[in-house]
């Protein structure tokens, strides 16, 4: 457990955070066109439906590295620096970009396109945030 600030769920993001707390990545999917989007908005960015009525569905969380940054100065309390912040393209939802901490440590050897999978960092008993780890090459 850390002293890091906790996310504050609102009505739209509450199901997302509830799933994270159980270490499941669920993404909002538009009921009208069936596309996933993140973060959920008041309209669907794909079909512009004003009533997307997002349903949160579990996804694999597997993806590929698009880029990464070494963070040497943290603006958040309780985060050890340096760490790697990775930009990931999800395999099954390629239009979704997720950014998160890589849990393999700041010395991890990375290449664009490396396979990663979602992992979760517990910030409190009720809260976990999505992060990533390098997937086995096998
Ligand atoms: Zn839609």
Please tell me about this protein's structure.
The chain is mainly β. It folds into 2 domains: 8-59, no CATH class; 61-138, Beta Barrel (OB fold (Dihydrolipoamide Acetyltransferase, E2P)). Strand 6 and strand 7 form a beta hairpin. It has a 5-stranded antiparallel beta sheet with strand order 5-4-3-6-7. Strands 1-2 form a two-stranded antiparallel sheet. The chain is globular. It is built from 1 helix and 7 strands; from the N terminus they run H-E-E-E-E-E-E-E. The structure holds zinc ion. Zinc ion binds next to loops.
For the CA atoms, what is the radius of gyration? 16 Å
Portion of residues in beta strands equals 25-35%
Q: Name the overall outline.
A: globular
| Range of helix content | under 10%
Q: Please outline the major beta sheet.
A: 5 strands, antiparallel
Compact summary:
By secondary structure, the chain is mainly beta. Helix content is 6%, strand content 34%. The longest helix has 8 residues, at 14-21.
Search tags:
binds zinc ion, 2 domains, 138 residues, five-stranded antiparallel sheet, two-stranded antiparallel ribbon, OB fold (Dihydrolipoamide Acetyltransferase, E2P), 6% helix, mainly beta, 1 helix
How does the SSE layout of this entry go?
Elements: H1 14-21, E1 26-29, E2 55-58, E3 62-71, E4 83-90, E5 97-102, E6 115-122, E7 128-134
Antiparallel strand pairs: 1-2, 3-4, 3-6, 4-5, 6-7
Bound molecules: zinc ion.
């Amino acid at each position: 457990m850390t002293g890091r600030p906790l996310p504050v769920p609102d009505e739209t993001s509450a199901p997302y955070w509830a799933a994270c707390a159980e270490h499941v990545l669920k993404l909002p999917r538009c009921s009208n066109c069936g596309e996933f989007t993140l973060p959920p908005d008041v309209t669907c960015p794909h079909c512009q439906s004003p009533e997307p009525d997002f349903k949160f569905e579990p996804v694999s969380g597997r993806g590929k590295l698009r880029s990464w940054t070494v963070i040497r100065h943290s603006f958040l309390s309780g985060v050890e620096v340096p760490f790697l912040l990775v930009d990931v393209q999800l395999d099954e939802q390629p239009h979704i970009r997720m950014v998160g901490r890589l849990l393999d440590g700041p010395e991890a050897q990375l290449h664009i396109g490396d396979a990663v999978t979602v992992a979760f960092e517990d910030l409190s008993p009720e809260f976990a945030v999505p992060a990533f780890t390098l997937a086995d090459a096998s």
